[in-house]
Design brief:
This protein has helices spanning 6-15, 28-41, 78-84, and strands at residues 17-18, 25-26, 62-66, 73-77, 88-89, 92-93, 95-96. By secondary structure, the protein is of the alpha+beta class.
Length: 97
């Protein structure tokens, strides 16, 4: 892992970070400044954000193909099938399963 260099250290100190450059934290001065900004700006102007875990997860975009002769299975995109046709196996076109 490459350590943080001089430029990182220069910027970190300039914005008020302190501590080891691999594990910086806010300085007391920066913490006071951030608290002032929060007091000035107030609450963030939108409803609480929540993750909607009930939404359907995206499934693969690849289509399952099967050789009708031996049962070999592979996957290919719809675009590849449209551009190049169905792949072959055992000398025959595979079918979309």
């Amino acid at each position: 892992m490459k350590p943080h260099g001089k430029e990182f250290r220069k910027m970190a100190l300039a914005v008020g970070l302190t501590g080891k450059m691999t594990a910086t934290t806010e300085s007391p001065e920066l913490k006071i400044q951030i608290e002032k900004w929060i007091a000035e700006l107030g609450e963030y102007p939108h409803a609480k954000m929540t993750l909607n875990d009930s939404r359907k997860k995206q499934s693969t975009r690849l289509l399952k193909l099967e050789c009708t002769h031996c049962g070999f299975i592979c996957r290919a995109s719809n675009g590849a099938i449209n551009n190049f046709g169905l792949p072959t196996h055992c000398g025959e076109d595979m079918e979309i399963a």
